[in-house]
Amino acid sequence: MAIWQTGKGVWLFAATLLGPCEPLYVVELLDIMFQGMDNAVCHGRISLPTCQEYLWEAKHSDKVFKLEGGPDSCLQNAGLESHSPGVYKECCGAETADLSCESTPRLGYKDNRSSLLLDHMSVQERQLVFRNMFRYETPIIDKQWPKHSISPGLQNFFELESGSNLAECGLMTKKNEGKTVLSSSIEFFGKDTGTIKGSLSDEGMSRDLQVKWKKLADLESLKTSNSRVSEIELCSSDERDKAGAFAMQKRSRRPPRRYIEELAQSKSKFYSRKCGVACKRSKNSFLHVRSDKNNRQKETQEETLLCQDKSYEVGCIQVPFGLPVEAGQLEEHNSSLNSEDCKEDHKLLRSSEKLEIEYSPAKSREEISDDECVLRRSTQKGSKQIKHYTSWTSSEVMKLIEGVSQCGVGRWSAMKRLLFSSCSHRTAVDIKDKWRNLLKASCTQLQKERKIKRDISKQASDHVPESVLQRVRELAVIYPYPRRKSQQGKSSVYVFFSSLSQVVVVIWSALIIAVRVTNLAIYLLTCVVWLLAF
DNA sequence: GTTAGGG
DNA sequence: CCCTAAC
Predict the structure, then answer these.
(1) Fewer CB within 10 Å, N side or C side of chain A?
(2) pLDDT of residue A441
(3) Does the pLDDT at position A44 exceed 60?
(4) C-alpha dist (Å) from residue A436 to A88, A412, A440, A481
(5) Candidate CATH numbers 3.90.320.10, 1.10.246.220, 3.40.50.10260, 3.90.550.10; the one for domain A394-487
């Protein structure tokens, strides 16, 4: 998150992210950030670091708020230092913050949570908070106005800082040259993009206000990472303890289950010696694997706790939904973070990244082929990783039918080697399961056809063409599945000749029966003739 | 290691 | 698609 000043001197909240990110995630942040603000007054544009530009004027033009005032009024405030204008551009290089705003402050707020902090402040004190947050002179409209103005920003400040793992923002209390300096610094991976500071001389600030400021500063400081704790000078160790207790009370959002699983997988990679399809259980090692699996589950649970604990250590984890950890990402920081010196830098990184680094395999990315990555991601045994469901394409189904017609049923591993060697995500078990499903579909197709007429849309998603099912039925006649016990493990040639022999036997039996029936008929006819003769 | 079968 | 037993 950043607060920056446009060319016209209008301060603006906006969300920015470093590193590859989805525009929708930015939108999500903007949604969070601008919640509670009503009026549409501004249009803007944010260029993401990945050069993906997301024009949010269409969606968020009604949520961007801005503050009125002359462009220089805030800068001319006595005792206020300005460091932020333009820093964002300098820091992010290619990024631009092209924000053009008309000026008319119309701030509304709906959320009263952050206003609790402001309830005990006078209008003048709120003005001071406002000025230090936004570096703006605030006209007094009514007693509530500064609160209205501050509360959404403060609320978003807190929510974003508790949720964002990309930026650190803190309102710090420092003793600086005999003055109590209240500063709000915004950082991107340690680089200051803007620092908003307001200083008040001790004599200029009432004791009551100083106390309130300190409370506010304490609350804000809890949102900062440990890397900043050393910079935060709290009044006493008691207060620091209280601050820690508060931090423990307000926990960050727990990472989603999928994220934990991905994390567990990355750890299991570290411990795993064998990866890929070949890493499967053997009968002899079954019990061992079972116990190992249980251990891994415990490790996963411990890891979850570790993850949460680490979140307090380095700030808060904000896990982007739908962005599973890529295996290749794990190695990116590996080389630079192996040394002891770099351990301190971990605190500036996301805790998730830190854990990823810890559990990343020693192999470099180049040493791992894409195929192997897929295998690791989807089929590694021993982890709780759930295989991503990928629906069978028609070409895969045709390949399966071809495989059955060539190899017969039951030789799934051979089929996998012959026809599905390029499909790393299709195991022999998958092929077998698909054939079973096709058999079911072919058997019930006639019944389904009636339903299809009634509910076409329901069947449209996974409907198998009738021609394919017809072919499946033909193959099912030739290769009944499941096979008989005697046929299992035999070749298709053997099965063919076995079936041929069976057919011959059946025909021979039929001939014998026919002959016997004929003989019986002849015998009966002879008997009849003999009786008639006498 | 591979396959069958239940879930 | 997962899991387990059986081979």
Answers:
(1) C
(2) 84
(3) no
(4) 59, 12, 6, 8
(5) 1.10.246.220
